[in-house]
């Protein structure tokens, strides 16, 4: 039991056209759009943000993007900025996802620029960290996570930090069906909270929501969400169907 409001975010990745996204979110809004015990955010691809924004209007479901550029505007072909996302009523943005890091070469330094730009523009970062299988097997998990957290959050002010959302996503658990054990997840979550205490303060660390991500499903969610330092989930595959996503929100309500 904690005072932090549980948080469930759907990361649709490169799935759903604008029309398909509206259909999905319509069902989500019908099922959980009125409850406010758990914070619910959907993160469609850029092309569906505007239509999904209209579909969630008047409900408690919030909108996030999956990435953004750190500059506000300029000659950055193919990129989208924080003010552009704000203009579409996005309130959150996923930053530093492992797919951005590994497939698109995003470094801790780049992710840090994005985190600072998001905060400057009143977008809440859902800042992702996590180790690869090789790093876990060599015993480097905590060190890797520490480096990602410290570099990714460099320059974030104490006054801004409580609004951050962190996501621990072991890379080997993403989309693989291999979920971290509750002990593995809780260990890293508690470690991250300790890092936040060192970087900011105990008060801030107690406020920041730390989500688990990596093959989270209705079947494994209750046990994960019952852990002291697991404040919700960043959901990929299971966020693409209303039924499983709603079940995850329901599990979070039950765990609150
Ligand atoms: P998954 O993805 O739930 O499909 O493992 C999680 C994520 O990448 O955010």
Short description:
This protein is an alpha/beta fold.
Description of the structure:
With 256 residues, the protein is α/β, with parallel strands linked by helices. It has a single domain, classed as TIM Barrel. The protein is built from twelve helices and eight strands. The protein has an eight-stranded parallel barrel, surrounded by five helices. The model has no long low-confidence stretch (mean pLDDT 97). Bound molecules: 2-phosphoglycolic acid.
Strand content: 5-15%
Q: What's the CATH first level?
A: Alpha Beta
Query: What name does CATH use for the topology?
Result: TIM Barrel
Bound molecules: 2-phosphoglycolic acid
Instruction: Report on the biggest sheet.
Output: 8 strands, parallel, barrel
CATH 2nd-level architecture = Alpha-Beta Barrel
Question: How would you name the oligomeric state of the polypeptide chains in this document?
Answer: single chain
Strand line-up across the major sheet? 1-2-3-4-5-6-7-8
Total domain units: 1
CATH superfamily: Aldolase class I
What is the CA-based Rg, rounded? 17 Å
């Amino acid at each position: 039991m904690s005072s932090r409001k549980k948080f469930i975010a759907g990361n649709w990745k490169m799935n759903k056209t604008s029309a398909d996204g509206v259909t999905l979110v319509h069902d989500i809004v019908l099922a959980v759009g009125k409850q406010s015990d758990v914070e619910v955010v959907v993160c469609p691809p850029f092309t569906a943000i505007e239509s999904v924004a209209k579909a969630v209007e008047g409900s408690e479901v919030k909108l996030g993007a999956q990435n953004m550029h750190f500059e506000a505007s300029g000659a950055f072909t193919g990129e989208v900025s924080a003010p552009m996302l704000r203009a579409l009523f996005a309130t959150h943005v996923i930053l530093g996802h492992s797919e951005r890091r590994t497939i698109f070469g995003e470094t801790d330094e780049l992710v840090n620029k994005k985190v600072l730009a998001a905060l400057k523009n009143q977008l809440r970062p859902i800042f992702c960290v996590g180790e690869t299988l090789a790093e876990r097997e060599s015993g480097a998990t905590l060190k890797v996570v520490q480096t990602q957290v410290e570099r990714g959050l460099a320059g974030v002010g104490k006054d801004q930090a409580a609004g951050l959302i962190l996501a621990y996503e072991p890379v080997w658990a993403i989309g693989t069906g291999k979920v971290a054990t509750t002990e593995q997840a809780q260990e890293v979550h508690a470690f991250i909270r300790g890092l936040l205490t060192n970087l900011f303060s105990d008060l801030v660390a107690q406020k920041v929501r730390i989500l688990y991500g990596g093959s989270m499903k209705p079947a494994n969610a209750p046990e994960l969400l019952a852990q002291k330092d697991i404040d919700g989930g960043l959901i990929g595959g299971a966020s693409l169907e209303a039924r499983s996503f709603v079940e995850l929100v329901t599990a979070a309500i039950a765990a609150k």
